[in-house]
Amino acid sequence: MKVILTKDVENLGKEGEIKEVADGFARNFLIPRNMAEPATDTAIKNAEGRKKQKTETAKVELEEAQKLAEQLEGRELFIKVKEEEGKLFGSVNEKTIAKTFKDEGISINPESIKLAEPIKDIGEYDAQISLDHGLEANIKLILVSEEEEK
User: Fold this and answer.
1) CATH says 69-149 is which class?
2) Cβ neighbours for 84, distance < 8 A, ≥ 6 positions apart
3) What predicted TM-score, i.e. pTM, was given to this entire model?
4) What integer is the mean pLDDT of 117-146?
């Protein structure tokens, strides 16, 4: 029986692929678990349409990720911190950096920010941001005291 996979199935194939499987495997396992559907002419056309749509969406997402990477690469991000004699009250971590970007209107997931360790002193530090599609951007973090602004 020919089926179209609606989900990735280990040792069988990826979502959207058309596979020839045993009738019993399709009827008793794949179809009841919504992992596949029978490969009718209509279903095949729908699957091709979804595949084309996914390809176009991935292309747009790649372009957006490339623009964001270009925008972030080499950027200096100033973070105001409370400190005393060069030591911070607390530390600056990935969540703090993501919040600072959000305040500037740029949405970055904290898990995509890579620091060697949490920052506990005033100064300049390097960080790396991993974006979708394997893109990366290197930024410079500059920690400044809130007192300097007053």
Assistant:
1) alpha beta
2) none
3) 0.64
4) 88
